[in-house]
User: Fold these one by one.
Assistant:
Number 1:
Amino acid sequence: MARFTLPGETGMEEKIKELVELWGVDAIRDSDGTTLSDELMNLGLNVYSTLCLVRMDNEWIMKHPQYRQQMYLMSERVTADEETVRINIMETIYAEQFEPNDDVDINKYWQVVDRTCNEIIVNWTYEKETTEVIIQNAKRFHQYDVVFLAYQKWEPVSMYNHITNKWTSEHKIPIDVRHKEAGDHILEILEDWLTNHPKTDVVRFTTFFYCFDLIYNQYGKEKQVNWFGYAACVSPLALTGFQEEYGYELFPDDLADNRMYNTPFKNPTKKYLDWMDFNQRFVAEFAKKCVDLVHKHNKKAIMFLGDHWAGTEPYGKYFEMIGLDAVVGAAGDGVTTRMIADIPIKETEARFYPYFFPDIFREGGEPVKESLNVWSKCRRAIIQKPMERMGYGGYLSLACMFPDFIDHVKDVAEQFRFIYDSSDGRGSEKTGIKVAVLNSWGKIKTWQTHQVAHSLWNQRCYSYLGAMEIMAGLPIEVEFISFDDIRKNGIREDIDLILNAGDAGTAWSGAENWIDAGILETIRSWVYAGGGFIGIGEPTAYPNEGKLFMLEDVLGVQKEIGLTASCNKPNREEHLEAHFITKDVNTTVDYGEGMSMIYQASPSATVLDVAKRSCSLVVNEYGKGRSMYMAGCPFNDDNARILFRSILWATHNENLEGKWITDNIHVECNYFNGIAVLNNNSDFAQTVKVEGKVYEVDPYGLKVLE
Amino acid sequence: MARFTLPGETGMEEKIKELVELWGVDAIRDSDGTTLSDELMNLGLNVYSTLCLVRMDNEWIMKHPQYRQQMYLMSERVTADEETVRINIMETIYAEQFEPNDDVDINKYWQVVDRTCNEIIVNWTYEKETTEVIIQNAKRFHQYDVVFLAYQKWEPVSMYNHITNKWTSEHKIPIDVRHKEAGDHILEILEDWLTNHPKTDVVRFTTFFYCFDLIYNQYGKEKQVNWFGYAACVSPLALTGFQEEYGYELFPDDLADNRMYNTPFKNPTKKYLDWMDFNQRFVAEFAKKCVDLVHKHNKKAIMFLGDHWAGTEPYGKYFEMIGLDAVVGAAGDGVTTRMIADIPIKETEARFYPYFFPDIFREGGEPVKESLNVWSKCRRAIIQKPMERMGYGGYLSLACMFPDFIDHVKDVAEQFRFIYDSSDGRGSEKTGIKVAVLNSWGKIKTWQTHQVAHSLWNQRCYSYLGAMEIMAGLPIEVEFISFDDIRKNGIREDIDLILNAGDAGTAWSGAENWIDAGILETIRSWVYAGGGFIGIGEPTAYPNEGKLFMLEDVLGVQKEIGLTASCNKPNREEHLEAHFITKDVNTTVDYGEGMSMIYQASPSATVLDVAKRSCSLVVNEYGKGRSMYMAGCPFNDDNARILFRSILWATHNENLEGKWITDNIHVECNYFNGIAVLNNNSDFAQTVKVEGKVYEVDPYGLKVLE
């Protein structure tokens, strides 16, 4: 029993007592929008209290508006059709969220740019009433835009919940703790709070300061989201501090970055890496002060990973110094589950989807179905990497309207505890294979690649994120390495396979890293000596002399980008070839967005499948090494098999097939202390043969073989 | 009658006399593989004799092998897995076609390159017996290749025909007339020939010297083809001459160009433009000598446009100085028809497909069907731009085995003459709209864009070439302009619409021309003032600061290339919107290869169609101007309507709809001296209403309304 944190709710006392037994609850927590009554606090459960320091004192911040958080925003690009151009900088920005900061010297802290010839404009004025920047003597038919500093008037996560749940309470304003007076004030109110909440056992910080980039548009809808961004840590104070420390100045364009806000999809610039480091150190140091205060009051300090990311970086250099006791995070799929589970800390907790919110817990809603879909993915992940605790969020009263959901959670909790306890917290045995996901970021983006936020579906992402989702639940070790890692240390001995996936030009594929001769040499020689390589989409891609894939010799394929159309390529029939990696596939392979005009480039390659006249599944032998190319790998049971089999094949581990691969693509087999455990990832009952015996596994069932 | 050139064949005398009447033949010609008997020469027809100077004297060239034509070839890239790398330079080259030229100083004229770090290698040796280049002290896992000079042992067009028709005659060797002794010899044999052929009225030169790039691989199959290339004009003599004249040296890499051989799909380099000019002048001057000789003998000199292209450039600066009387060319579709028809010369002749060759004229072959498919496209073109003459090629004896084909040709010839005569050679009236196809080459590539050869189907081309094919048969003026034209002269008054189509990074789209501020200014201001703009595929594209389409404000759309995935884009339903340009379309639009992740970028744009979640048909208003974006435009009757309507709409000529657009997408209406003429482009009978009256038009029929 135990390992379960329940979202409490005043008024639900009797029901909660039942659930404590039924679900095996050992902790209770409040959350945004709910409180805990004294009765709930006195049930003998651990009491978790949610604290969001950054929006904790609205009265104070209203008196000190200069300490509101700030960020650089950008206007739209406006084409000059006359010599005078007026740009309403707030035209596509949510005025409830942001307000231009013209308290500063705007000639220094704002920037007006002619984007047609990349020239910074010096002569312009700002009209506060209309929020317009006016450029005189503009060049006709050049495009102009404005990068401007803006105060955040509404803390964006609070804003999100407010809008989603139609709250009418006051707008919480985020406080920038880098300002000494603000930081001291926050520490003071934290100390007061701790003193006044003796019943709280665990302080659950809603991450710490500075929200990830979340910008709403003029209609109050999401305009831009980057779960991993540092765009919201800006202030003149921070910029000045940065310049003093790093010896150079950051300009508005460096941070607003042409509306890209240094998205992790781009190879990071040196400046941006410095900026991240600068903020990470500040956040870690300040968070440590908070955690130390909590510990001083004999409480535990845990962090919810999800909103105020910037600076905390659980896979970064400064995370451990914060001194947290645990991390809890929202587990929406296998990838986000692993992102939390793999954090180097002694305890992690999954907050499973769905939230008990009225979007799903409404008449006609199907919360059990929603949950099974999420749980089946998260379960794959925790089978490989168990977590210490689980929980849910939202309004318990809503969940209680669905008795089948209450039963379902009992089942989830039992499976969750079984996985942890029967594997002694270690999860399944492993194949011994280690896969390194190679991208421009490496370790710091562990399980954070190929997504804009919360593993949300995105047309440019799902064909790659699927591969991560698959690997999150395979009995392999997965780590994330960067090109710099290879430059510094070569490829470590324990790595068996390198996987590179993404669109050409992105940080996930690697962009200009692929014309570094050293990188090419190292990877080629490593594969040649027996290493495995998997490329998905546009791997090893950088357009160079008419070619795109720089490791076409390793991959055996190349992509026609329009410059070598004069070179003949063989016509290909659409036909799935038999091979170790396609053995379980009886259907058309789903490559997601897929690719066009991929052609065989090495005679040694074997084309296993062609889609839309383009080679979509290809294996190659390179020296003693092997490679697999796939045009895209969205998550489904077929692709899970193809990818797992490819990993076995490319690492010369075909002999592991018998132990690890069942005869039913929907059922996976893992081993806890020698005992085989079957998980059915489908919503149908499945039969599967293991060591000659046939078993039936319930829909989404977990079956332990004795 | 007349306007018809018949391919004669000894032994077919009686049949030919019949056909002279039936088809209205006024000229007879020999061709590769056929001769004309005295009887045929004396039928009172004009006698055309085919001369291919470049392969005219095999005996002589075998005695002077140093004057064989040469070109730069490239080996494959070889990855060094040891310190010694051996590269068989002929590994993937057809040994019957080429032989390495190591008579020259190979250290000067060959080049060995480390492509991994782009370094020229100095220490290497060549082993003649194995045709291997040996590199010592190679860097392990770098890739190496060799650019080497090679003699052409077999003239490639002769080779093509030889292989296709399984000829067993001797291999014709091409003579490089730039060598004075060779050139003088050719002029001598030409003079002799002219003296000895008094019955010849017209000398039909098979273009002139230097074949377009046609390289066969080790299996005797086509490896690389570029109909418009200058890769085959290379010799130490030419390179030396070039250096003397231009003051700089061309290196092997400049011409072999990393296996791309300066394909026109690339933006041309200054060096390559110089090289083209250098060869154009030589070819024009030498061809003029030949033409002058022909004229001296009171014969006409015409050129067949099709094989030995390099240097002749009918839309180039030097073409007119050659002094030809006519050009004849292979008309395989509307685009190639217009390429010939539009040449600035007083007479052009179409040689229609199919050739009377055994590939089609065989038992079970359907030559009429083949011909109708070609003819219906060519007819659209000549309705707009009539040609003076027509003809066929190949073995007449084969054609005569198909009586229905004989009847069909009668019909074609009558339509051909009708189109010319009833329009006084001017073709249809026009709408008055002029479309400029903007690309990096401009006029010199008139009707030569978006193709590798002969309008052959190519996966990277057909989605763009379709738009050219459509325009070849529309009642509009089409010209081809370059970015340099705009830089020098702005956009001329008479241009109503600019069309830009192609893959990003290619010369057809324009590549880096799109970050020239002057170009952007000029086009934006011109559209804003009322101009029309059509973009297909990846127009105005150059990746810059996370954006791809540089004129997103004009087009109203942008393409997500993976760096701005964090910015939200609206989800789109697949639904064809009603609009002037989609009025005739009742089916799913075929965008060919299409695009992915095109999203609306301007609020003023209207998305008319979405395919694969990507905006595929979009119109926009920009000032007084209008634009249309289409994801791809393969040739079919639906797309012909969409494109024609888009041209009318974008140029504010919707009022022309009534006159020019019929109520049946398969039937077009044109006007010869005020008389309406309907052409049915389908193989079914079609009914169509014109000015209130309903007409039936036969399958592929041409119907004149009185």
Number 2:
Amino acid sequence: MVPLPDLLAEPVVRAALLEDLGRAGDITTDAILGSSSQAITASLVARGAGTIAGIGVASLAFRLLDSSAEITIERPDGSDVQRNERLAVVRAPARAVLSAERTALNFLCRLSGIATATRELVQAVRGTRAAIACTRKTTPGLRALEKYAVRVGGGMNHRFGLDDAMLVKDNHVAAAGGVRAALERARRAAGHLVKIELEVDDLDQLREALDAGLADAILLDNFSPSELRAAVALAGGRVILEASGSVNPATIRAIAETGVDLISSGWITHSAPALDIGLDAEVPPARP
Amino acid sequence: MVPLPDLLAEPVVRAALLEDLGRAGDITTDAILGSSSQAITASLVARGAGTIAGIGVASLAFRLLDSSAEITIERPDGSDVQRNERLAVVRAPARAVLSAERTALNFLCRLSGIATATRELVQAVRGTRAAIACTRKTTPGLRALEKYAVRVGGGMNHRFGLDDAMLVKDNHVAAAGGVRAALERARRAAGHLVKIELEVDDLDQLREALDAGLADAILLDNFSPSELRAAVALAGGRVILEASGSVNPATIRAIAETGVDLISSGWITHSAPALDIGLDAEVPPARP
Amino acid sequence: MVPLPDLLAEPVVRAALLEDLGRAGDITTDAILGSSSQAITASLVARGAGTIAGIGVASLAFRLLDSSAEITIERPDGSDVQRNERLAVVRAPARAVLSAERTALNFLCRLSGIATATRELVQAVRGTRAAIACTRKTTPGLRALEKYAVRVGGGMNHRFGLDDAMLVKDNHVAAAGGVRAALERARRAAGHLVKIELEVDDLDQLREALDAGLADAILLDNFSPSELRAAVALAGGRVILEASGSVNPATIRAIAETGVDLISSGWITHSAPALDIGLDAEVPPARP
Amino acid sequence: MVPLPDLLAEPVVRAALLEDLGRAGDITTDAILGSSSQAITASLVARGAGTIAGIGVASLAFRLLDSSAEITIERPDGSDVQRNERLAVVRAPARAVLSAERTALNFLCRLSGIATATRELVQAVRGTRAAIACTRKTTPGLRALEKYAVRVGGGMNHRFGLDDAMLVKDNHVAAAGGVRAALERARRAAGHLVKIELEVDDLDQLREALDAGLADAILLDNFSPSELRAAVALAGGRVILEASGSVNPATIRAIAETGVDLISSGWITHSAPALDIGLDAEVPPARP
Amino acid sequence: MVPLPDLLAEPVVRAALLEDLGRAGDITTDAILGSSSQAITASLVARGAGTIAGIGVASLAFRLLDSSAEITIERPDGSDVQRNERLAVVRAPARAVLSAERTALNFLCRLSGIATATRELVQAVRGTRAAIACTRKTTPGLRALEKYAVRVGGGMNHRFGLDDAMLVKDNHVAAAGGVRAALERARRAAGHLVKIELEVDDLDQLREALDAGLADAILLDNFSPSELRAAVALAGGRVILEASGSVNPATIRAIAETGVDLISSGWITHSAPALDIGLDAEVPPARP
Amino acid sequence: MVPLPDLLAEPVVRAALLEDLGRAGDITTDAILGSSSQAITASLVARGAGTIAGIGVASLAFRLLDSSAEITIERPDGSDVQRNERLAVVRAPARAVLSAERTALNFLCRLSGIATATRELVQAVRGTRAAIACTRKTTPGLRALEKYAVRVGGGMNHRFGLDDAMLVKDNHVAAAGGVRAALERARRAAGHLVKIELEVDDLDQLREALDAGLADAILLDNFSPSELRAAVALAGGRVILEASGSVNPATIRAIAETGVDLISSGWITHSAPALDIGLDAEVPPARP
């Protein structure tokens, strides 16, 4: 797995630490440990089974709070882990470990939750031609990190924003006065490295789009499996077909078996439960 | 429901819009609508049942993108809505509506998901003395907004960060060399407006804490219902008792019926599924 | 021309105003005008011929300094103007006009310079199939604005950054151990909305790329016109061909006539001379 | 040459890297190199002749992306280099070299272009008393860096903003009701470390200013060489005389020979062509 | 004394350095030292007697300007020092020492002034039960640092903001229609870790508050010593009593002797004179 | 008095409001007023006598929290007011008034304190030729505002930072190897709009500086009145003379009567006591 550059993650992690430290810092740890700078060893441990994502981001939380922190990663991003497996060992002053713990875990649990949900869908479609993709339904401020977690889980990234590809949706078609007109406007404006995907609601629109021949991909929105099958037949491999709508672990296999190229899911980013991960520390008595 | 001041929400919403617009802006809408400034009317509509939170935040997304946008809120934060209910009407240039849609919904669906999950727990404990509280297991960067959504759902806020109350946890007790020593260090350092809560793992620690008499609240971590009952009896109302660990809609009633004052749940912020909300627009044909 | 959303331009314009105001503000205007709030009328006037870009950005400079400023745009972005033509009229307090003047002009002259240079190239290739594209050789911090100016001038945008399309360059080919291997790695990693362009140095590499059949576009780096002609013949329309290297007003026609689809130029962003535009104000005597 | 403190350059370089990395990072390099951390050696090489400025800023780009990057500077800022001369050697992981390359070069080429243009003017006036100065016609966001490049090229800095010296321009004179009144208002408001320069349009205004005796410098705007000569005679060394308007390599010698102290040029910052500098890397095959 | 985490102080110190460096940097030191990187040794020395706070913040100023700077702290925060005592030794390039000096001292003198004023009040009430607390009357942007300085001086922190405890003031009482109603509204809204303090203007209000029994603390605003004494008797230890208003070194002993628990002072943050501290450097001649 | 542009003050005021609101906002006012949007009228009233500065900055605090706030200024910046004088009337929703009150006052009291201290010194030297100037001993982050307050009080601004004028201090003289060498290096590097001031410690250094004739001003550091008198005689009007060191209301008249042009005081910014100003509101009962 290609890790995110620290430069991308750092502003978000720094802001999260400051959000938690507030104006007074960690007043409990200050009261208990005082100015002791004793270093301790702590372990990041899975409390449930899943796919790890964000271990480097979590490490950054400890290192930003104390530059002497050392993290040894034992289960890198992309690892499938079981309950009670140790993911990494943190060696840092007790103060830094205790103060950065929640921030580190908030990133790690959320991103691992997304990777786990993604992998669940990826495995559900194994053997079909369908890939799993995410959407723009990500947490405000965390898009780069959450899209990374999708990749870690084996999923494919869809657009990163409104600006890196065209997705012509129903309202755009309405504004243009029809599928062909919309595609023509899109193609005229698109740069040579910009792909165009069209969202269609039914097979008639699909036919119109295939006739126009201007889309790189077509999103079949809320098609039933039998409609999807018809769409696949109609397209005959001329264009990438993406299914979306009502995608969940229970329905996805049937969707995949229709022969679509791609199934996109907002659920893996907006509703994936966090993976439970904790920090176990050995804290010796300290004079405050 | 007391709304958040716009001043608090604005930096987050502005950053989310810029995250979505990227460097090139909404290239699809630009291609289709061109420089048309025609205004349209669109509705925010629930696609599932739940509790609304963040309608003001969503409004801000439209208004930041186009200061002429007007939003009429029909179901304010805290409303319980059914599938297909209209929440608000947006009147703004088509360009702004289409470009801000996803950002507005990303906030609204997430915050409403949290409010809905919170309300589910609140209703599950109705009739007991237990209140529902959140934790610091929130999304990095969104703590103020997510804690607000908990309030909207009828929950209580726990600490907002490491700095506004003391929570003496197992590692702190270990560092201090015992419950009493930890509480004494905490009390010595705490200002007169700072409360102290102690986390205990068993009834012995609870006894020690009650004897010390220095905690405003005690968090009973991963106690079974029968242990919780014993704890309630032991405390005899001298201190606020909070249950945490393994809290979910299936277990919470039994926990509440033990007589604890408070049940905290990380699940309502880190794993609540988003509430499905969409935007329905009437877009007339536009010359680009 | 579809204007940039103010939300995208505002942080840059605000920062530029603050960069000019420094810590003490406009001390000359303060000394001369004192606290007079008298409004004046001023004209933005072309001092040379060219294509206008950034008139909205310039307006924003005046409006951010004084929200009562009113700007009437007479020659919108994309207009070809002659020396001494009036572009817009500003009505605002004299203090705001004088203090924002340089910032407004710095944006307007630079962006219009880019639009003018772009249009010059566009006109030089008129009648051929070649479009003009920009590169990532833009001014740090101004990429969104400068790419916009290229569009205003009739050019096409290339990638906006390292993340919205793949450009496989010579060093990538070396790292992969060959053209085909590089393209295969790229294709495997690319999402369905990500296009891949390959940079080749000679006709052999071009042949290898055409055989592999995995690139959406091929950049012919520093090919002579006769090599370009050979490349066009070889490709036979199967892939978009982009010429780059040694592109300037003197050489571009010959390049375009080879039949390439696209000619990219760093010169239009990194070396285009600013268009000379000034502000003419009628300032009546004011009591300080 | 006294280098800029990194503290001043860092925010701008960091922002430029993030502007290029976008939300997904360098997807091409990620696809080709995968998580390989192999270090390579690369050279920054002049592709044209000129004066180098910004080699430290370029180094910062590599170091911010990877703190292990080591840059050996062979031709420091201020060096006059020939085509194909090596300026510096970069030793860093291949990923960092390839991802930071464009950002580093965008700074280095622009700043070297400014230094080169400045030196061209400086050499054109050699032997006269005239120094070359820049203006506030700099790129928004880059004023500190561009003014530094002017110093590197042998030029003098004019005001850095509206706040560090007074420049009384035609509109100020109009507002004050005359040259003398304007100078009196300026002098009354100016602190003891603030100099005052007056812009005049003709010899009459110059006379009035000399009579008033309150200006430290006088800017002769758009004077012909013969008018400049008359102005020099009139001033008789009592005040610094600055010529501006229509300054370019072809005209500057004649202006300098009139005896003015200073010639200011917006051209060296707003229209200087970038100096062509490239990066040559030896990239060994890497397993992704 | 538990030091503030660097993460909290760094953004403020960095901004302060940039505020002082402006756009051109330290032009005097550049002119004199040129690019010399010679290291020197300098001492931070008290020019008056007082309590030191902020020595770590001052160190950060030197280290942010030059990461090779080494600071040896001899008199840590909380030390009472005499005139001419050496507080710390700085070893860094002369350029960094001279350029960071004023920023480092601005923090150190202000924070030490606050610690000194706090300690003065703390010592004035020695032997009574009264503690000294600060208020929210702090310098905009420096609240975390100034509240830290109060702790260093032996004082207690009051609220850090509007959000970490409730302080029900006269206007709140008026809005609620009375003391009891206000307290009931506050209690209903307050989380279990939020304390409530009520401000009262006279003994009648105090009685009403004591009857309501809902406040954790009561602020007696502008009570005379005899009224304070009556209040202490009335409360009988049931609630924390805070005196405020007209607190200064001359009046505080009499206030403390009334038996109140807490005396709060805005003066220690908004009006404490800075402690005079200077930097003595041995600068050898340097070739520029 | 020429007001600061809002653009300069806004980032500081916004940051201060957010510093006070924290993550949860004004929880007391929320509890008491609920979502009531009732507007009230409140008065800013002097509680002591002094010179007002910052009334516009205080207004901005209310307006940023609620854009409907209207402030009528009765005693603008620069007014000398007596105890109990009303400065301004605020009309805004009660929530905004109560939540912004402290932030508004923190600015207003501090800036008015500086203006008051400045005016005290200005009046103490009335009738002499001496002007009063500030230093760079300002609060980190507030330099622009505090220097403005000095102007409001009738003082003169000294340098705004390290970059807008040269101040050659003792360490610079040591590094250069003498006064003349230091001045020569400074003059060689200084732009034509940059003034040079030299700090001298005794009359010998003054003589050397006068002989060199390269300084625009000379700072006589810690000279006794008789030494100052000797310095004035020696300089004979050839250069601006500034006295500094041990300047306070008790000593300043004697210093001024020596004939120096300028007396600078760090005290007016780093140690001026805040002017006591309060807010009186009429808050009617509100249903929460």
